[in-house]
Design brief:
Number of helices: 3
Low-confidence stretches: 1-28, 236-240
Oligomer: single chain
Distance between the termini: 104 Å
Radius of gyration: 47 Å
Shape: elongated
Structural class: mainly beta
Length: 706
């Protein structure tokens, strides 16, 4: 390593003391006394290598008449040293040096002087990276006056991270289709022979984007240009692999006298559903792997016009042909035959697969297309998306109509929208999605275990005329549902077949029956011309030990759903409560309204007080105790009331203080009586007979049964 020379820099120190006066005016304004430029070479760290040339020349404002001498000081950055300043050449004279800097005089006799400084070798530490910049100070003197003093930074070398650089031009927008051109990829050597024929000279370009592959028909030798080296044909030796995701190039002959370069114009097939950036990974034996973004999936420009978007409705669980709406596509520019058009439905909606629907012979029956040059290629994306092919270039408008669409249970009710992709963009409403019916009831409390527990009527209301389709009990018609069904939750079963009637509209029912104890199947004979209402009454449930405490929710329309057999609606029919969670009812003396678990109800007679005892109407007392109508019996001949709940039978006789509980007699201090043609019972004795408790609030005149 070069040591500090015996020649000292005393001359520089002397000059620094002598040159203390700068001529006024020369330091102001945009003046250019000298210009400093450089060339650079690529070098490796931890090695002695030649570097670029520093050139110092006169600037536009240089005046040799007022300058006696021009000096330059060159200083290297940390980690870089001169190997031998004796080898520094050019039209200069070195007057002092260290390991990392030297000072020289320049040949400045000419008005337009130019000095080149050549450095044969630099010693570069292994941890140096990036640009190697030299600091260049240039100053001129006249006598004892400094005429100018300027400092520059110039690059004389670049430490290479590898022998080959890989880059790409600005990413291009790619639409769905084949023969889509991405940004040009450039592979460039930093020195001749960097891309060698050793190890077969492999270069791999791998697409790291879903739904995109190399267009093997368009990606020919014409798409790859070379300079300084040659490649084997890209079609040779199974160049394409990995489902057309990897392009394989091999170096046939190396560069020798110039840095080699490969330029690749990529051609892709962009499949429907692809999105985001198109990234290509470039790798090889002589290439540090790099990932380049060469494209972004975008959309084409086509004007879309929708007519009668409010006319058609698809009902949940059904296949519907939209025979009113029409969608016109008008290309602003020609659509190439390599393009595609995709149409995607929202979640819960799908295009009917011909394999599942016998009424649709093939995919051409899913959408009617006015132009014979446009055809349906296939379904994908779990049948939510349809792919249209363009057999010839399109520049005229064409029409899409008679869309056939299936709505599953989870389709969002509201606007039915389609989203175009590929050569067409945008989301457009073409109809509506609705439920075919709604289901309502008034929930009742259900014992944790019990039989013949009364439920309230269930009402099925048709959304619009014809929304509830006729059913096919044989289940051999995929265009008709099997039945309109109601399935009870686990632990509940139908104690008997309820009554099912159309109470409004002209819907005509077929057979009605209970299947497997927990399912009510209703057949629809003909669909309605007037929106109809179905009422299900005389509902009695059995509750077994499988029932869980909490809401009892029935599922409605699983067999009515032709899309997936998932139920279309739910309805809370009751709440299963333990013995400790009995009903709480409140009756106010003199009022014809009462509450059960906070729900207000109406009686046709009001409670009253007689002989310090409260009397309540028998039927509403029974309701408060959870006794259904069928278990409230009146014997008019014998003037006897019988109440039944579970395994307990209670009897009372008008005018008698004897209360019979499962045949055993209990004596009351008052007797039942008839008031306003209604049987009135002394509430405390009856409630206690069924295990309930009665409390009295004198301030509010309220009787509470729990």
């Amino acid at each position: 390593m070069l040591k500090t020379r015996k020649k000292s820099l005393s001359l520089l120190v002397t000059l620094a003391f002598l040159f203390t006066m700068i001529l006024p005016g020369l330091a102001f304004g945009a003046v250019e006394y000298v210009k400093v430029t450089s060339s650079y070479t690529y070098v490796d760290a931890d090695d002695e290598q030649d570097v670029g040339i520093i050139t110092i020349s006169a600037g536009d404002d240089y005046d040799s008449n007022v300058v006696d001498a021009v000096y330059a000081e060159i200083t290297l950055p940390d980690g870089v040293e001169f190997t031998d300043t004796d080898k520094i050449a050019g039209n200069i004279a070195v007057i002092g040096s260290t390991d990392t800097s030297f000072v020289c005089t320049l040949d400045n006799k000419e008005e337009e002087f130019s000095n080149s400084i050549n450095v044969d070798k630099l010693d570069i530490d292994s941890d140096v990276s990036g640009d190697i910049d030299a600091a260049v100070r240039v100053w001129a003197v006249q006598g004892s006056t400094i005429r100018f003093d300027e400092t520059f930074n110039v690059t004389i070398a670049k430490v290479s991270s590898g022998d080959v650089t890989v880059s790409a031009a600005s990413a291009k927008t790619l639409t769905v289709g084949s023969n889509k051109t991405g940004a040009k990829i450039t592979i460039k050597e930093l020195s001749p022979g960097a891309l060698s024929t050793a190890n077969d000279g492999d270069i791999f370009l791998t697409i790291k984007a879903s739904g995109v592959k190399w267009d093997t028909e368009k990606m020919t030798d014409d798409m790859v240009n070379t300079m300084g080296l040659t490649l084997n044909s890209i079609n040779a030796d199974d160049d394409y692999s990995n489902s057309d995701k990897t392009l394989h190039l091999t170096v046939a002959s190396e560069s020798t006298t110039m840095n080699g370069k490969i330029e690749i114009t990529p051609k892709f097939v962009v499949q429907p559903g692809a999105s985001g950036d198109v990234v290509v990974k470039v790798s090889g034996d002589d290439i540090d792997s790099v990932e380049l973004t060469v494209g972004q999936i975008g959309q084409g420009v086509v004007d879309v016009e929708v007519e009668k978007a409010d006319k058609d409705t698809v009902y949940l669980g059904q296949l519907k042909k939209l025979d009113e709406v029409k969608v016109t596509l008008d290309p602003a520019t020609e659509i190439d035959e390599d393009d595609y058009i995709t149409i995607t439905l929202p979640k819960g909606l799908k295009w009917p697969d011909p394999d599942d629907w016998s009424d649709i012979s093939d995919v051409s029956g899913i959408i009617e297309i006015s132009d014979n040059n446009v055809s349906i290629n296939s379904l994908y994306n779990n049948d939510r998306s349809i792919w249209l092919d363009l057999e010839n270039a399109q520049d005229d408008d064409f029409e899409l109509s008679n869309f056939q669409i299936v709505a599953d249970y989870n389709a969002e009710v509201g606007d039915l929208e389609i989203t175009f992709g590929g050569a067409v963009e945008g989301t457009y409403k073409i109809g509506s999605v609705k439920a075919p019916f709604t289901v309502t009831t008034e929930a009742v409390n259900l014992p944790l275990r019990g039989s013949d527990v009364a439920g309230n009527k269930i009402v099925i209301t048709e959304t619009a005329a014809g929304a509830i389709l006729a059913t096919d009990d044989d289940a051999d018609n995929d265009a008709a549902p099997d039945a309109l069904d109601i399935i009870l939750p686990m632990g509940l079963s139908f104690a008997s077949t309820p009554d099912v009637d159309v109470v409004d509209g002209d819907l005509e029912l077929g057979d009605v029956g209970v299947v497997d104890d927990d399912t009510l199947r209703i057949q629809i004979k003909t669909k309605s011309n007037l929106a109809s209402t179905i009422e299900i009454t005389d509902l009695f449930y059995n509750v077994d030990n499988r029932a869980a405490e909490g809401d009892a929710v029935a599922k409605v329309g699983g067999e009515f759903n032709m899309a997936s057999n998932n139920y279309l609606a739910t309805v809370k029919i009751g709440k299963v409560v333990s013995a400790a969670s009995v009903l709480e009812s409140a009756f106010v003396i003199g009022s014809s309204t009462y509450t059960i678990d906070g729900v207000e109800k109406t009686m046709d007679v009001a409670p009253y007080i007689k002989g310090d005892r409260t009397y309540l109407p028998i039927r509403y007392v029974a309701y408060a105790l959870g006794i259904k109508d069928s278990n409230i019996l009146w014997d008019g001949v014998n003037q006897t009331v019988t109440l039944m709940k579970g395994d307990k039978v209670v009897q009372l006789k008008i005018g008698s203080t004897a209360l019979m509980i499962n045949g055993a007699t209990v004596t009351m201090d008052v007797a039942p009586e008839i008031t306003s043609d209604r049987t009135m019972l002394p509430i405390r004795f009856v409630a206690q007979a069924f295990g309930a408790t009665v409390s009295w609030d004198a301030a509010t005149q309220t009787v509470t049964i729990e």
